[in-house]
Every structure is written in C-alpha cells, then in structure tokens.
C-alpha cells in the first residue's frame, strides 16, 4: 500500500472488524486489487468530480427517498446517498449465499402455506400456536385459500451481515413489500457509466436479466395460465417514500403503475379503468400493506386499496404478489424459528445461520435479556426500517431503562439479539476513504416454483461513524454490489 493510501486508511482498526477490502494486516484482498488500484491512482479533484457527477445524475433522474424525522414538521425528500467504491463478492462466496437464500425462501414459503392450511408445524409443537394466531400480520381471511402456484412470496429481501470472522448471518427476512430494487439497478447504471473501464475489466455478473425473471415470475401467477396477462403495480401514490422505485419497476418491466382509484371490482373480477373502457387485471404486484389493500376486508377507512379485491382474489380471478398475510413470516419473533422450519419442511441443515436471538415472551430469555440490555440489540417484532430499536452498547441508561420497562409490560412485543460486529467497507467521505459498517439485502424472486437470486443485491451503508443502523429511513446510504463471475 502506498504512503498516500496508508494515510487515507489511518482510522482502520485491523483487529476489531472484518473489512471487505482489507485483510487484518491491511493488505488488499485479492478480489479487490483492481478496485483498490483504480481509486489509489485517482486525484482528490477527480474523485470530487465523479461524486458531483453522481449527485447531478441522481437529481436529474429523481432517485430519491423520503425521510420522516422526528424533529422535522415536514418529511424530507432527498437523493439516496450513493458511495461509488463497490462492494465485491467473490464467486465462491456468492455460490454459498445463493444456495442459502434459496433454501431459506423455500422453507419460508412452505411455512406460509402450512399455517394457512394444515398448521402441521403448530400441531407438531415446533412453533407455539399463540405466536401465529396472535401475530398482527396473520390474516384469518387467507385460511384455506388457494394461492396461485403456491407462491406466497414472489419477492423477498433477506438482510445479511458478516461478523468479525467474515461469516455470513441472516439478520432479517423482508417478505411483505421488500424495497431497494431501484437503488440496486440505478447504482449499477451509475457505476457502468462513470467507472466503465473498471466495471468492464472486473468480470461482474449481470443483473439486467433479473428484470426479465421478475416479470416472468409475475406472469406465471396469472389465473388459468393466461399467456398475455395484464399486470399492474399497485402503489399508495406519489407521496409514498418509495414511489420512485414503484415508477421505476413499472417502467422497466412494462407494466401499468396504478393507484387504488384506477381499479374497480365487478363480478368477482378486478378491472383497470382506461379511456377505451375496462380491462380485466390478472396480476397485482402490490406495494402497499395488507391493511390498505381492501377496505371491505381489512382497514375500513383505507382510501388506497380496492373495495372487493379480496372477493376477486378468493374467486381465483386475480393474483396478488406478495400474497396477503405473508407478514407473519417476517415477524422478528418468527424469524428465530426459521432454522427449525428448514429442518422441518426440507429435512436439511441451514446453510446460513441466524443471529443468536432471544424470544422475550420466554421467561428465561427475558430474564437474561433484562440483565444484559447494555450488550444486546432489542427490536420491536412488528416494526422495520430501523424503527423501535435499542442498540445496547450505544444506548444511554435512560434509554435502557425505558426499554426494560416496555419489555416487562409487553414482552411478546420484543426480541433481543446478540450485538454483532458488522463488517465494514471503505466509503468516500469528504474526499477521503473511511470505514463504515454495512449489510447486504439479497433479493430472491419466485414464480411457478422456480427461484432466482439477483446477483449481488443491495449493500447498505451506515454513513454515521460507528453506527450500526444502515436503513435508508434512518439516513443510511447504498453501494453497488459486484459478484464476480470468475
């Protein structure tokens, strides 16, 4: 490493965390040599110019995310922070991740079918019945309902982290309306344009074909196997924090972007209002939560959904992706049982392990957690996006006492997890490279029993020094993720 680069990385502690680019002695890992060499040769002025070009392009294309900060009266729309030092995953590592993702999603899908039909996993005592029927995302309306192709989760976003030894762990399962696809594709577009020589010389696995797989997965859900189904993306509207993504995906896949008012229920079918009349909708890729899908079935005051949608769904005249009720499987308490699901449904050992998790409705787990809150991460089981969390090692005594009181009042509302030393990667901040913690959201697509893992997924970055919270809703950024093809 040159003297210039040594000074740039002076803040790295080679003993505390696993670093994606550097080994413990700060030597460059072999699969990062080309990237390291490229950035080492670039002058600060050139790096600043690339950064400015990226920001300008993101503004022009409207690549935004809406923040809802507690200390602000109005939501803040901003460009998603994008770091242009790519995260690189060697082929042999990715092969293990890919197999682990397919195994996990297959088991989760089997679990969803089971709990809405036979509930064998409950009857066999693997998961307590109360944890299912008492779950806020469990939908009795789905009991006994046939789901097209038995595919409950057309899209899944599984969050992975690495510990100080570089081992992968599953942190969370996002199975309702996982987001981040647009940042994955837009990030790749920025890198191929602004760092084209580096990209082309790095043998990076292609992600463009995954959009075709996405569309094919949605098509496969069409009732009666219709050859040219009408597919729509149902969005809450332009004020939703992820609306940019909704518009992007609809445009890229050539499907209609609609709001609830654009659809109408008639004769147990759903139709799209067009100037020429009504056209029957076959598949709805929904990006709004269950509660708002159908005011006649769920939340009665919803103005976002389609009255009668669940009647059409029950009649088998329209498919919904992801299926209503999938949220029960990404509940943070149910997460703790996924390794048992893999053993139960697949008769296999998990390829990727969970972060050690404590179920606080269990007396022994609760007592341990309450005595060690300063060492654990506590999460509300029904929240996501980095909300409702306590990170013990970084919390004040006041925050710890508040969470202890909340846990004692309603222990089933929380889980606790071991605080993992998330891996780090270099990011460019203020013209210098600095280490920041990262995770990886891996996207799995499923249709007619076939699964596809998008190569690389979305690396999320905790931009605040020392922070472990990578969520965009909490101010985190993203990186392009390169899976090497050789």
From TrEMBL:
Residues 86-462 form the Circularly permuted ATP-grasp type domain. It holds the Pfam family CP_ATPgrasp_2. Transmembrane segments: none annotated. InterPro entries: ATP-dep_Glu-Cys_Ligase-2, CP_ATPgrasp_2, UCP005522. This is Circularly permuted type 2 ATP-grasp protein. The lineage of its organism: Bacteria, Bacillati, Bacillota, Bacilli, Bacillales.
